[in-house]
Amino acid sequence: MEQKPTLKYKNLAMNTQRDLLATWYGKLATAEETKLPIAYMLVPGSVSELVRLMGFEIVFPEINALQCGMKKTAGKMILKAEDLGYSSDVCGYVKNEVGLFLTDRESPTGKLPAPDLLVCNYVGCTTFVKWFEALASYYEVPLFMLDAPYIRGDGITLHQRDYFVQQLRDLADLCGSISGAKYDEDKLKEMLRYSKEAEDLWVKILHSAKHVPTPIDSYFEAVFFMSPVFLMRGMPETVEFYKNAWLEVEERMQLGIGPLPEEKVRAVIEGPPAWPHFRAFWDLFKKWGVVSVASTYSKVGGLFDLGFRHDPDHPLESIAEYCMGCYTNISLPKRAKLLKQYLEEYSADCLVIHSVKSCRSFSMGQADMREYFMHEVNVPTLQIESDLADPRYFQRAQLMNRIDAFFESLEHRRLTAV
Amino acid sequence: MSVSLQQHLQRCRKVVYDMNFTYVDAWRQQHPQGKVVGCFPVYIPREVIHAAGMLPVGIYGGGLEIEIDRADARVQSFICSISRSTLELGMSHYLKNFDAMYFTSVCDVARNLSGVWERNFPSVLVEYIHFPQNMESKSSVPYYSGEMRGLCQNLERIGNVTITDEQLRHSIQVYNENRALHRQLTTFKQENPGKLDASELYLLQRAGACLPVEEHTAMLREVLDELPRREGKRRDRIRVVLEGAFCEQPPLELIEIIEEAGCDIVASDFALGLMWFLEDVPVQGNPLENLARSYLTQSDYSSVRHYGLKRRDYSLVEKVRRVKADGVLFCIAKFCEPALIDYVTHKNTLEREGIPLVNFEFEEKMGVFENIRMQVETFAESILLFA
Ligand code: SF4
Ligand code: SF4
User: Fold this and answer.
1) What pTM, to 2 d.p., does this model score?
2) Residue ranges of the domains in chain A?
3) A187-416 is a CATH 3.40.630.30 domain
4) Residue A417 class from Cβ within 10 Å (0-12 exposed, 13-18 middle, 19+ buried)?
5) Staple A56 to which of A39, A45, A86, B308, CB 3.0 to 4.6 Å?
6) Nearest CA to ligand 2 atom 3
7) Is the interface score ipTM higher than 0.90?
8) Does the beta carbon of A229 lie under 8 angstroms from any beta carbon of chain B?
């Protein structure tokens, strides 16, 4: 009987991340007692190094929505917001956070502190602006609009970069006026050195999926691996996490172990996951031996795999470049180009587009992308619909029918090609 | 010989609902080298296009005038109709005589539609204007004037023209005049609701998105001259502010029904994009910086831009008081997220201020209005009863 290889580093990443998150949630839980200033901020283009430098700890409402989704409390939060008057057509993330406000921020991870400052890093999603304006009306705290120009052309222009850098200075001033902290550029540079190191390791993990079989699922597992580099850059503990994560991934790669017993189909996946039905959603793909080798959702917090790194020698300029370069802030043609690159570089067999009702930032244009990939690039493309936040929009039977039909047809095509 | 108000209204109705854009063809015949720029809602710095000698034309989707044939496969069902019908206008060649399309940062749908446009119509110049959302930073004016300089450069390239500061100043002057007349017309409606139906005001103002601005200005002058002499209709109606219809537009019939149901629409955001500024844009000095500064300091409140230092819901309350409205009608396009999210903040504030409100959703293609009529009638009657 073939023996399963012993994995020396199995669960090392999970345990390290658990400690990292526990420390973070611990700070949030005692924030009121310790008088720790709290900023609410968004994940894409989060200027977490700067805001933490200026004495704040951070709550990410999108992470609240993710946690509520996975821990099955999102439905209740969303209904509370709808009772207040929010339409069923408003983003579920927004409604989840309003629901938390209405229930005194009792989240599955513990009671969350109220904000002292709202930093709306408007990076690629206009709903962010509306969302944080609504939160400003509920919490009545200062709202800082950190506006990232949308990137369509080949690069960031000088006036776009200067606009953003000035806003970073303005934000630092505002944070300092609340927390009393001083802007220390040397300290910021040190934080960015840690950010860069974490980013290097994160990219190694992402690139490992080029290996056949891939050691990681770049969608369903990437959402776990990506959290520290999106939420907790700038800390030595985050670098430690990625060193451990890389040990685990490298070991899997060396032993030819992947997330499934057998890798049958390599897929690139576009769009956010269905958080309230995460496992059930994943199971629909596992059934067909589908592993994701690349995804775009794992780039919402930064396109590090295309080469960007925070640069300690030019701190504010590189933060500006980072923010404007996040996946949600690049044009549809650039997004399509990236998907095409992933399909080629990761030797993918197909593209799966998960269109979510809540998120027009992701979803508007995906149907056009599907036409493009199917008829012009000639890649088998599946488009399915559900939601990333609202549990009501996950129709398992319908999804299963579409997914089964697609992969059955793909299997058939391969057999007849042989 | 001057044209009567009725004749103006007929012409306005014709151009507003002309999806073949025959008035664009007429302009092209007079300007054989001219270029035409389609402008998706809400606000576009038309001065820049005008200064290039080009014609800006508002594109408000296909409304009731076209069938959706090809665009359904490209736009999911949970997305607003105007985006779908605008794409249909493109794919079914209604916009074949347009050289450029402008989109702006009103929402993610509009933004991504610009990307879909780029991919599907590679011969058309597509611009996406990311307006500054940080209304306070000292870098906001240089940023936005830099963006407008980019627009000018691209127009110069496709039109083989040069846009000078002098031309821009002249265009600012021309549009200042037009906006002033829009404001006068709106004030006339507020002061004489019985002399101008909301649907008539709508047509007169919407035509400003279609006609060359000089022609529209001349028309508004004639209309404003004739209106005071008009017989006013005495009606038992409440005065309302209508909010939420700044992008996708309702069918004209819906506007008529709202007034028939007992509401004089004394202020609305139908023509928000065509009016936009509360004061004239300065003509002296650097024109692009003036346009940028006016955007940051003189823009009317709107769900499609951040409010800066003064909250939008407070501006709404001020407007209600200023126009002596009895209540607010939220008339929101289905799936329009900016309006749907703001609705709740607005509702909370209006309730605190004791201002009555009612809300309903519409789609550009709707044909049945009974539910909305009943809602509005009930609303109007309840206010009249307690008055
Ligand atoms: S619309 Fe999409 S990107 Fe924006 S807040 Fe909602 S889920 Fe996030
Ligand atoms: S109707 Fe609303 S959601 Fe649709 S394009 Fe206009 S602003 Fe965006």
Assistant:
1) 0.97
2) 12-184, 187-416
3) no
4) exposed
5) A39
6) B336
7) yes
8) no
